[in-house]
Amino acid sequence: MSASRQLFVNLAVDDLDRSVAFFTALGFSFDRHFTDETATMMIVGEDAYVMLLTKQKFGEFAKKPIADAFSQTEVLLAFSAASRE
């Protein structure tokens, strides 16, 4: 029997509080055990999470420059929803 796998998507954000407010409004929740002033773990599903990291914190893990989301593609994500609302 294989072990369960978990998915962690890491995203650099300009404003952590604003990002949390945005995703909270979409109905997502966060794990306070993995949250501080530099990062938070957004719960997407039982084994899927999105780590929202300040750019400084993200830079501690990334070897390359962080993409400018206004002029470059940084990541493509899709979330299902019951309706557009």
Textual characterization of the structure:
The protein is an alpha+beta fold and 85 residues long. The model has no long low-confidence stretch (mean pLDDT 88). The protein is globular and about 35 Å long. It has helices at 16-25, 55-61; strands spanning 7-13, 29-36, 39-45, 48-54. It is 20% helix and 34% strand. The N and C termini lie far apart (40 Å).
Write a short abstract of this structure.
By secondary structure, the chain is of the alpha+beta class. Helices cover 20% and strands 34% of the residues. The chain has a four-stranded mixed β-sheet with strand order 1-4-3-2.
Biggest sheet layout = 4 strands, mixed
Total helical segments: 2
Separation of the first and last Cα atoms: 40 Å
> How much helical structure, as a percent, in the residues?
10-25%
- Class per helix and strand makeup: alpha+beta
| Number of DSSP E strands | 4
- Radius of gyration, in Å, reads 14 Å
Mean pLDDT: 88
Low-confidence stretches: none
Order of helices and strands: EHEEEH
Cα shape: globular
Measured by DSSP, the beta-strand proportion falls in 25-35%
Major β-sheet strand ordering: 1-4-3-2
